[in-house]
Amino acid sequence: MSSSSSTTPSAFRGLPPLVWTVFAGTIVNRLGYLVTPFLVFFLASRGVTGAETSYVLGALGAGNLIGPAVGGVLADRLGRRPTMLIGLIGAAAAQGALFLAPGVWTMAAAALLISAAGSTVSPAAYALLADAVDGEGRRRAYALFGWGVNIGTAVAGVLGGYLAAQGYWLLFAVDAGSMLLYALVVAVRLKEPQRAAAPDPREDGAGYGVVARDRLALLLLPLFGVQLFVYSLTEVALPLAVRDSGLSPAVYGAMAAVNAVVVVALQPFATARLARFPQLVVQSAGSVLIALGVALTGLADGVAGYTVSVVVWSLGEVVVAGIAAGVFADLAPAHARGRYQGAFSWTWGLARFGALTVGVTAYTTLGPGALWWTALLAGTAAAATTLALRTRVERRTTHELAA
Fold first, then answer.
1. What whole-number distance in Å separates Cα of residue 327 and Cα of residue 393?
2. Could you tell me if 37 and 157 are in contact, meaning their C-beta atoms sit under 8 angstroms apart?
3. Which residues contact 176 (CB under 8 A, 6 or more apart)?
4. Distances, alpha carbon 48 to alpha carbons 41, 53, 104, 240, 249, in Å
5. Which of 30-34, 354-358, 372-376 has the highest mean pLDDT?
6. What distance in Å separates the CA atoms of residue 197 and residue 206, rounded to the nearest whole number?
7. pLDDT, tens digit, for every residue of 109-126?
8. Is 50 left (phi over 0), alpha (psi -120 to 50) or beta?
9. At residue 147, does pLDDT exceed 60?
10. CA-to-CA distance for 20 and 15, rounded, in angstroms?
11. Predicted TM-score (pTM) of this structure
12. Would you put residue 367 in left (φ > 0), alpha (ψ -120 to 50) or beta?
């Protein structure tokens, strides 16, 4: 074995060049993930505060519900590459529009376009990876994709703080530039794969009819949605808990760094070690870890306590990496992979939106304890129910892969 190959985590060896190209492009793109984390501070610098801020943030969240649905259909109808290019170029243009927007409503419209265009990319990218690899390789490809997201986001967190201090225009310039660079990678390095011919539209159904008729998919989507909602509380409710403990924002930044270190360091090796076990068993175990870690937030009142909770749910994040998307890709007929991934990405967007709205409302009105207990019980119940579907999922995926 060559020294170069020995330095590649074993979980990712043997993946085709297309997967590594998407991985590299994803890191480049996520290195520029700068505007959204600092959007509240940018809006304040423009005199937008209070209720007006919620309009812009609400539009940003709504776009994450529109983009995946549109992206999934376009990925199957137009192709994977065209959809990714439309999303990346459109989101880059929207970054400029947001920076130049003269008022709250134009800012909200630009924020809607940023998230809607940007979130069209994921269903197409996931479908492209499903086209490139089969079976167990899909989970590894999706785990590599997620690893790229975490690597880029971790660096962006440090880079964003520095650039914001120099001027907010730099955040927008780097964010838009990274999207355009990824678009160039897609245009030059990626080839549209050969895809299965779609059946007659009258049989296939308009839009998401093919997914809506899939009873197993309709069972799994809300279960994955609950698990994703619990995970999304780490982005929404954790900073509120840190604030209410009388700790500084720097502590939350440190917790984000702990998460990034755990995921980036352990994910490749965990993916390799856990590949021998049934996917839904691993998914359910990891989801319970996430629910437990989120619930432990309620017991924390200092840096040490928060660090323990973050490590626990970060380990859960490492365990589940790539599994849910891989399961959904295995369920999809070849001609409908884009729409299946669009449905999965839409569920992800809905979970994050729910955490931002329902989760925050529960935290502020019912109290933190109610939210943490709900997260533990709901996450554990969803994981157990998902595990109960294991036989049906394995029987179905074996059939689809054989076909």
1. 8
2. yes
3. 32, 92, 93, 95, 96
4. 9, 6, 7, 21, 21
5. 372-376
6. 16
7. 999 999 999 999 999 999
8. left
9. yes
10. 7
11. 0.83
12. left
